[in-house]
Design a protein that fits this description.
- The structure is a single chain.
- The protein is about 50% helix and about 10% strand.
- The protein is mainly alpha-helical.
- α1 packs across α3 (about 65-75) and α2 (about 55-60) crosses α3.
- It has helices at about 25-40, 55-60, 65-75, 95-115, 120-135; strands spanning about 5-10, 15-20, 80, 90.
- The chain contains 5 helices and 4 strands.
- The termini are far apart.
- The radius of gyration is 17 Å and the shape is elongated.
- The strands form 2 sheets. Strands 1-2 form a two-stranded antiparallel sheet. The protein has a two-stranded antiparallel sheet with strand order 3-4.
Length: about 140
Amino acid sequence: MGDNRRVTSTSPHLKIRIDGAAGAAAPYEQLRAQIAGGARAGRLPAGFKLPTVRGLAEELGLAANTVAKAYRALESDGVIETRGRAGSFVAAAGDGPAREAATAAQAYAERARRLGLTFDEATAAALEALRARYAD
């Protein structure tokens, strides 16, 4: 790794730094640890779509097999989930209902954004729907 460091910033949420210095952990382990840490810390929210294996490998200057190995380990640990051709996403933490709610919330957030709603408009609509449902 020429300069011993490779950095990527694929989104405001995903910032990965691979250290190629002697004695550093294997690149796949660095990648796995950083994604897992981001998910645990909430920097990578449930439902966050990760870059494709090939895309992230190109950005980091790594072999696609290295990124695939990290993604497989993350999936095995329950940190991410792969939805076929739709891609890999940060998995929701918790039990089934919490996971399903997080997935639904992510879908709502994506839809509201596509509709052009501001954050405040999307939040107000969601709160209104929740208040109406829980008013019983």
